[in-house]
Design brief:
Elements lengths: L1 H20 L10 H22 L16 H15 L2 H15 L10 H18 L8 H18 L6 H25 L1 H6 L4 H18 L31 E9 L1 H14 L1 E7 L10 E9 L2 H11 L3 E7 L8 H15 L7
Helix pairs in contact: 1-2, 1-9, 1-12, 2-3, 2-4, 3-4, 4-5, 5-6, 5-7, 6-7, 6-9, 7-9, 10-11
């Protein structure tokens, strides 16, 4: 699992500029690659800390996880990813990772039945985290991978051998690729621009990194060949799309289930791209759960006021949708990519 997230960090660092270039849904702000990279990096560093260095991050302190428990390692990585998630794509990946950890708890190795259970739990949780989930996005890629892994598991009657695990991983990546190709015709904005979904491509890369890490094989360098928009030199398709007005508001907050439902309803009325998911599973002494909240609104003030009226948010951020969130995204991506590639020679520099 540590190797998987490390590979994903490297690969997304190397591909983030391409993902940014074709990012036109749900907002043409050209930062899907950057958001996914930064969120996966947080998860990778958390897993690295569990396995080797003891503290998850400089910002957050968590109880020590058992480094031999697959679910515990991923749960801690998922929790840190949730706390540091960036954008729609990063938040959905963090939800995916945290949910995937649950069926793996207490296990020291992954198998085909466990993979199928983890992918299924993860895609269901990701779909439910969004107030208005849309097919043709990374959600469809998650679902396709989960269904393919489940089909292999069912066909082999729950066999937990490494051979069947390999078949399940191959099937999951193959199905994810087919789902990415389909995204172009599932969303009008993608069809008009002749591109596939950026978040879907990012999820495909993450799944191929999982396959590579578990099976000890190279990443499939030909995986992205021919994907519409992705093979065009420096397309920056998002730059020609209409600019979205408004801001992205994100925070972490402790809420009762009733207050969480109220917040989701009110945020749905104020804006769109509402994502709410629990951070960690247990309630505190007051019966409140920690939630990661994400929304796009025209004006931040009413949304922030609503959030503060229901609790005390932490890690609250407000980012303009019409401008890049990283002041030097290309320089940052290149520097991170070079550093990551030094650690892991399996990354595909582009």
């Amino acid at each position: 699992m540590k190797r998987w997230l490390s590979k994903a960090e490297t690969t997304l660092g190397n591909h983030s500029d391409r993902l940014n270039a074709i990012n036109i849904f749900p907002v043409a702000d050209g930062d899907t690659g950057t958001n996914l990279y930064l969120t996966v990096r947080a998860a990778a560093h958390a897993a690295d800390a569990v396995v080797g260095r003891g503290t998850a991050t400089d910002q957050f302190t968590h109880p020590a996880a058992d480094p031999h428990d697959v679910g515990a390692v991923l749960a801690q990585a998922g929790q840190v990813a949730m706390e540091q998630a960036r954008g729609n794509s990063g938040t959905l990946f963090a939800v995916f990772l945290a949910a995937a950890a649950e069926p793996l708890a207490g296990h020291t190795r992954i198998s085909s039945p466990l993979l199928a259970a983890a992918l299924n739990r993860a895609q269901i949780r990701a779909w439910s985290a969004l107030s208005d989930p849309v097919p043709g996005t990374m959600l469809s890629v998650m679902e396709a991978a989960a269904r393919a892994a489940a089909a292999v598991d069912s066909a082999h009657d729950g066999d937990d051998s490494n051979q069947t695990l390999g078949l399940a991983l191959d099937a999951a990546v193959e199905a994810a690729l087919a789902a990415v190709v389909r995204t172009e015709d599932q969303l009008d904005a993608l069809h008009a621009a002749h591109v596939v979904d950026a978040g879907g491509v990012g999820m495909l890369l993450i799944l191929d990194c999982l396959r590579s890490a578990v099976l000890g094989e190279e990443l499939q360098s030909e995986l992205l060949d021919g994907l519409h928009g992705y093979d065009v030199q420096d397309p920056h398709i998002h730059a020609g799309m209409p600019r979205d007005e408004g801001v992205e508001v994100m925070c972490t907050i402790s809420l009762s289930p009733l207050d969480a439902a109220m917040m989701r309803q009110r945020l749905d009325e104020m804006g769109d791209s509402v994502i709410m998911s629990q951070v960690g599973g247990a309630a505190d002494a007051a019966g409140q759960y920690r939630w990661r909240v994400h929304v796009h609104v025209l004006d931040a003030d009413p949304a922030v006021a609503l959030i503060r009226s229901l609790g005390e948010p932490t890690d609250i951020s407000v980012s303009e949708l019409a401008v890049p969130r990283d002041p030097q995204p290309q320089a940052a991506t290149v520097a991170a990519s070079v550093a990551a590639e030094t650690r892991n020679p399996d990354g595909h520099a582009r």
